[in-house]
Design goal:
The termini are close together. The chain has 8 helices and 14 strands. The strands form 4 sheets. Strands 2-1-3-4 form a 4-stranded parallel β-sheet, with helices on both faces. A 4-stranded antiparallel β-sheet has the order 5-8-6-7. About 25% of the residues lie in helices and about 25% in strands. The longest helix has 15 residues. The protein is an alpha+beta fold. About 35% of the residues are buried. Strand 3, helix 2 and strand 4 form a beta-alpha-beta unit.
Length: about 270
């Protein structure tokens, strides 16, 4: 069985997380030191994922998520599997005419973002669109954003969520939670909004936990280490907001000790 290591790209915000990861894994900062390992690329796989995967293979290693598995998440391909439990979504480019925004007749409101990233902290000007005209304006601006435009723009039906407070630029702090999974094994979860005034206001329920597990049991057929962001609807019930690559996802309010200790057990059990 290959050992598992963390290839960590640290900055001032992640130094403490790196120290905690080191309690459970061998943590490396250079790909050339990863020989013969299964590599979890914490914050380190982008922007050159295919090149990193190739270099690691030449060194007898493999990434925990292959590039194809990463693309399943980053390209929003997961939407095809999860349409029933996530907001209706349209694309600027799609081989299916019914999924292009130009062919839709929905009048809004919408949430407009890149396939992976958004400008959520400019919610009322660069994410929330009351009308189709607003959506087109935001899409044009995001297409010129070097951090988002290359991803492709998506338009999502706005779904009202249970909201606790309204932040700067109208950003709603909702009952949203981040879940880390390895395959179908829950590693940890925590309140999504680290920037909310009252971090204790989020509320997770058994139904929410069951919903996250149900989503994971579908997603895990296409990728190994991933994050689910789920939220409570204003009218009740839970909805899948997003799927992300676990290698590049921030902690939100998840406990790093729980994440890395659980991930180590999961890797020891599953990675061969």
């Amino acid at each position: 069985m290959k050992k598992s290591v963390i290839l960590f790209r640290k900055d001032l915000h992640s130094e403490e997380e790196m120290k905690i990861a080191s309690k459970y894994f061998e943590v490396l900062e250079s790909r050339v030191l990863c020989g013969g390992s299964t590599v979890i690329g914490r914050y380190s796989v982008l922007p050159f994922y295919p090149e990193l995967e190739t270099d690691l293979k030449l060194n007898g290693c493999n990434l925990v998520n292959t590039y194809d598995q990463h693309k399943y998440i980053a390209n929003f391909d997961w939407y095809a599997d999860m349409q029933a439990v996530t907001p209706k979504t349209w694309f600027d480019d799609s081989i299916r005419a019914d999924l292009t925004f130009s062919s839709s007749i929905d009048e809004g409101p919408f949430v407009v973002k890149g396939r992976t990233n958004s400008r959520k902290f400019k919610w009322d000007t660069l994410m929330y669109a009351e009308t189709r005209r607003d959506a087109s304006r935001i899409a044009a601006e995001l297409s010129s954003d070097p951090g988002i435009g290359y991803q492709g723009i998506i338009y999502r039906k706005y779904v009202p969520l249970r909201t606790f407070e309204i932040g700067i630029n109208g950003l709603p702090f909702t009952n949203e939670w981040r879940f880390f999974f390895f395959r179908d094994r829950l590693l940890t979860y925590g309140y999504y909004w680290s920037s909310a005034d009252d971090l204790m206001q989020g509320e997770m329920t058994e139904k929410g936990l069951d919903f996250a597990q149900m989503c994971a049991e579908c997603i895990c057929h296409n990728t190994e280490f991933f994050v689910l962001d789920i939220a409570e609807r204003a009218e009740g019930g839970w909805i899948l907001i997003e799927v992300n690559d676990g290698q590049m996802s921030g902690l939100s309010e998840c406990c790093p000790d729980v994440l890395y200790s659980s991930l180590k057990v999961a890797c020891d059990d599953f990675i061969e």
